[in-house]
Automatic annotation (TrEMBL):
Species assigned in the record: Methylorubrum aminovorans
UniProt-listed Pfam families: MdcE
Protein name: Biotin-independent malonate decarboxylase subunit gamma
Record-linked InterPro entries: ClpP/crotonase-like_dom_sf, Malonate_gamma
Amino acid sequence: MTLVEILASLFPEGHSVTVEDGLVSGEGPFRGGRLAVIGIDGDTALGVDGACRLAGDVLAVVRRGGGTPILVAIDSDSQRMSRRDELLGLNEYLAHLAKTLLLADAQGHPTVGLIYGHSAAGAFIATALATRVLVGLPGANPSVMDLPSVARVTKLPLDRLEAMAKDTPVFAPGLDNMVRTGAVQAVLDPDRPLAEQIAAVIDAMPAEDVRDRLGRERGGRPVAEEIAAQVVRDAAFG
């Protein structure tokens, strides 16, 4: 689905969501209230300016209060790998954006990520993966790091990594692998109204992060849940 189709399915009565320089912001009527939308469209890379703008949009929703849900719709490139952005401290800007989404969640604003196109690396982590729940649409292609990049970092041959990815979803790209690891909770049906499906996701939203549990149940991350629990136990004991 395109962003236009997504918004039409979410807001059949109309909306005020706009796209400027690949950055999505606005809102529309939702369940008797409003649904705020931020995001990235058109496979746009996320740099310091974009991260600031999106973070400002999230904080504006938090300041208004009222528990307005926030949908983070993503079709992005990775973070913008320019000299300017790196010198300005892009990692800190991306962290700030992720923290605003965590703050919104803590302040009672349900946060739902929706991956409908491509996304990778820091842009993916600071947006879609920073929400309480992440869902996807068929055709989405998320990755934390694509395999050619993994090959450059690990010095392993690309063909070997491609073979490993078939059995090791924890680092393999693609929507199916993200579902298996628990990063993506569910894949939505583009033939059904998205407003109803997003409402159902919000109604069933867990009180805590359950992605490690889903990863164990689905076989994509069999030991992450226990390791995380052990870290918590050790920290409490210390």
